[in-house]
């Protein structure tokens, strides 16, 4: 089954063709990073207009690279939430139009569920369920028990900023560009000494996170309110270490307590090398991490997820689909 996956929840216009939920035939991502960099973050209006402009060229390239024409596609999958309403609308309306005009089934996909399915793409052996999904992105930090395809229980989440959001805010404090995650990671690598010890939040929920206090602490240090200001590289390293430690500690605890077979890391922050290495080193269970290109937003993860969704969705009226910007998982 060939699925065309469309993803426009934030600032990437992304379309991919995936066969049987795991074989990647094409994966085109048109990033708007340069467009938003001058504002230091994603501007929703600008994002949706760019999605409109890029939708058809990205679609044509994605089909072309897959050696397909639209007639070869068995279903159209699209992210309908969570994300920016205006951005989601562009993808959802494009998907509805394609499904309606070409009489293809339309499969709505939850972006967060999609992130987890990046772990199904191109693998030799499929992930074993139940698994622990760890979604660490710009908008979410969720610990999810995945019992079956489509059966999730959210065990923990962030009570304030998402991990990626904290990376982006700290990058701004350190005078680095947008998106902040890769910039902070790069700078941290050049640190000669361990930086200051930064706090780990203590929360009631055993698998919940909080990153805003950490960001405020970095802000106080940068402003000289905590004494001598350490080199920026050391602050970047100390911050990264604190985020990774919090995420890994809770993920390992959740995995052990819930008897899962594997841990599935995903989301933009999963591109972070320290996080990838620390989780693999500290988790006694098998850990899967998607290739870096499938960690940040892409259409392939949406198409992969849709393959497993297709059976449940059945006959779905393409014109009935609407966006759900506040959609959650579990
Ligand atoms: O999953 P994603 O592409 O979009 C959302 O669904 O949010 O994640 C984007 C987030 C941004 O906050 C970005 O700074 C972060 O992922 N990120 C990283 C790295 N690469 C991207 N954070 C830490 N280290 C990285 N290497
Ligand atoms: Zn995402």
Structure explained in plain terms:
The chain has 330 residues and is an alpha/beta fold. The chain folds into 2 domains: 2-121 and 294-313, Nucleotidyltransferase, domain 5; 131-288, ATPase, nucleotide binding domain (Nucleotidyltransferase, domain 5), CATH 3.30.420.40. Helix content is 41%, strand content 19%. The protein has helices spanning 33-37, 44-65, 85-102, 111-117, 163-173, 180-188, 212-222, 232-257, 273-282, 299-313, and strands at 2-7, 12-19, 23-31, 75-81, 106-110, 131-136, 141-148, 151-157, 262-266, 287-288. Helix 2 runs parallel beside helix 3, helix 5 (163-173) crosses helix 6 and helix 5 packs parallel to helix 7. The chain is globular, with a radius of gyration of 20 Å. The mean pLDDT is 95. The structure holds 5'-O-[(R)-(carboxyoxy)(hydroxy)phosphoryl]adenosine (KG4) and zinc ion. 5'-O-[(R)-(carboxyoxy)(hydroxy)phosphoryl]adenosine binds next to helix 5 and helix 6.
Mean pLDDT: 95
* Helix fraction by DSSP (H/I, runs of at least 4): 40-55%
> From N to C, what is the helix and strand string?
EEEHHEHEHEEEHHHHEHEH
CATH architecture of the largest domain, by name, is 2-Layer Sandwich
What is the gyration radius calculated from CA atoms?
A: 20 Å
Q: Strand pairing plus helix content: what structural class? A: alpha/beta
Short précis:
It contains ten helices and ten strands. By secondary structure, the protein is an alpha/beta fold.
Summary keywords:
alpha/beta, 10 helices, Nucleotidyltransferase, domain 5, binds zinc ion, five-stranded mixed sheet, 330 residues, binds 5'-O-[(R)-(carboxyoxy)(hydroxy)phosphoryl]adenosine, 41% helix
